């Protein structure tokens, strides 16, 4: 895929992503997340500060995120990058609302934004360092 095709693949249709982090003891951790992309191609999501992934992100910012189409002919985008964590509630509300609307629909965007933009959450922005993508794998 080209960079534009990879972005379009992530944008539509909306699919959950899988986030891979490294726990402080070196063990891997994999968890589903809801994501969006900013104008610069950074992956944005929220997570609980005290979750395994929240704790892992604060100790080791290197991550991998995979978005895939599990239906034939199968395609995926794999993003390796570095995460930056923020607790800015104003910025978190903007992104949590946007992400909530993306996955749950515009009519529920504000509900999910308010639910997820709280002091116990983190706003995470992943700057890609490497992107690998393939489309129509089984063709």
What does this structure look like?
- It is a single chain.
- The chain has 139 residues and is an alpha+beta fold.
- The chain has one domain: Pnp Oxidase, Chain A (Roll), CATH 2.30.110.
- Helices cover 29% and strands 39% of the residues.
- The protein has four helices and seven strands; from the N terminus they run H-E-E-E-E-H-E-E-H-H-E.
- The chain has helices at 3-11, 52-59, 89-104, 109-116; strands spanning 17-22, 28-33, 36-37, 43-48, 62-69, 75-86, 121-134.
- The chain has a seven-stranded antiparallel beta sheet with strand order 2-1-5-6-7-4-3.
- A hairpin with a 5-residue loop joins strand 3 and strand 4 (43-48).
- The longest helix has 16 residues, at 89-104.
- The relative contact order is 0.22.
Record keyword descriptors for this entry:
alpha+beta, Pnp Oxidase, Chain A, 4 helices, seven-stranded antiparallel sheet, 139 residues
How do the strands and helices of this protein lay out in sequence?
Blueprint: H1 3-11, E1 17-22, E2 28-33, E3 36-37, E4 43-48, H2 52-59, E5 62-69, E6 75-86, H3 89-104, H4 109-116, E7 121-134
Helix pairs in contact: 3-4
Second rung of CATH, namely the architecture: Roll
Roughly how many Å apart are the termini? 14 Å
Helix content bin: 25-40%
- Examine the coordinates and then state which fold CATH places here, giving the name of the CATH topology: Pnp Oxidase, Chain A
Strand content: 35-45%
Summarize model confidence as the mean pLDDT. Answer: 97
Order of helices and strands: HEEEEHEEHHE
Structural class call reads alpha+beta
Q: Please report the first level of CATH classification, the CATH class.
A: Mainly Beta
Number of helices: 4
User: What order do the strands of the largest sheet run in, or round the barrel if closed?
Assistant: 2-1-5-6-7-4-3
């Amino acid at each position: 895929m080209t960079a534009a095709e990879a972005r379009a693949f992530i944008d539509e249709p909306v699919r959950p992503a899988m986030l891979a982090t490294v726990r402080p003891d070196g063990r891997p951790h994999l968890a589903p997340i809801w994501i969006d992309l900013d104008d610069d191609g950074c992956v944005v999501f929220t997570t609980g500060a005290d979750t395994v992934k929240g704790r892992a992100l604060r100790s080791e910012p290197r991550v991998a995120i995979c978005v895939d189409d599990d239906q034939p002919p199968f395609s995926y985008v794999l993003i390796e990058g570095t995460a930056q964590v923020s607790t800015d509630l104003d910025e978190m509300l903007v992104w949590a609302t946007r992400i909530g609307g993306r996955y749950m629909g515009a009519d529920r965007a504000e509900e999910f934004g308010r639910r997820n933009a709280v002091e116990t959450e983190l706003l995470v922005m992943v700057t890609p360092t490497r992107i690998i993508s393939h489309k129509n794998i089984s063709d």
